[in-house]
Please model this.
Amino acid sequence: MKHRIPVCLFGLLTSGFASAQGLYYVGSEAQESMPLKWVVGVSAIYDDNVAPGSLDATGRQVDDSSFAINPYVGLSMVSITPQTTWDVYARLGLIYYFDAPDYMDDVNSQSRIGFNLTHRFSERLRLSSRNFVSYELEPDYSYGYASTRSTGEYFFWQSDNSLGYRWTERFATYTGIRLSGTTYADVDNNDRFTWEAYNQFRYQLSPQTVLTADYRYSQTYGDGYASDTSDHYVLGGLEHRFSPNTIGVLRAGAQFHSVDNGSNSTSPYAEFALNSQINTQFRVRSFARYGIENYDTVQGLDLNAPTNGLSDTLVEYDDRQTLRFGISADYAISPMLSLFGGIDYIPTSYSDGRWIPRPGEVNPGSIPDVDEDIFSAYIGLSVKFNDYLTGTASYTFTDSSSDIVGRDYDRNRFSIGVSAEF
Model:
């Protein structure tokens, strides 16, 4: 594994309320209605490594560059009444690589749709529903499932539905179920479906602070060689409003992880999010999450074992401990000019590996633990030419340092685009 400090910067923000979701979410709702808004745009992209970590027929890692174009159309709308708040957003687009290598498609989807609803049946009882669907090529680390770039599209969806009830002036509960799934077009053993039931107890300690206690139980069903898993979470936490425009959420505790026909383990678990509108010009958001993840657990390792013509030895890791950290900010220099930037950092440790035998293979013996670090960041600017037309430019650098063959790479990406809003 290589050890060096990456110099990095990332680009291409998604527009609208969608960019405020994922692990950045702090439980806030839209505060004012917004009429239906449309946006149409196009970006020109240069990517010096369009399929990071890809190997050619000889097993040599290749770095193919290409120019690309990314046209899209989007919409957003927010409706607020005394009983019901809902918002919908969508961005439908595609990315076309002019010089795509033979092992990936020229055209890939870059599309997302989301719908959020809060309905207050009474002063005590309310329903909350948050839903998101994407079919795209580029990973978004802030949603907590992607850890590396694949050469094909993937489909991800999530639906989180809960009922909240205020029992007294200070005590309330949220009880719900969260469903999610991923399907990869060109990657084996990585499809997942997860259902999670949860209950949260909430105590209003002060006008600014809420204490929370959570219990969650989830089951994840794996694809191909990936095993099914189950997890229990026992967490305590707090939500604190530091100011009218700054709120932080922290939960921490234990995760009890069990793998079918595999091993059981216990891990610390923590999640954190902070959103702050520091002033009218400057906004900062951040998140962190640590625990055992059920994605990306089956890996091909070069263990130099006879494989009957196979290029690697398949291993499933029962313990995949991952830290996800992200921070983003935007600053309005003037009504016409804004800057934006941010960082994602994802160190992962794979342990408790088990050999997956295939016909003709010889047992490779002990399975090594492996590590992987991903560091990505972005910087860009946005120029508002008039009330309808906006231009953007951004630069991305991503560094993946990995013990896994084919997942050690650097990547630079430049983007310039224009959009019209009406």
Notes: The CA atoms of residues 318 and 352 lie 5 Å apart. The chain has a mean pLDDT of 89. The first strand starts at residue 34 and ends at 47.
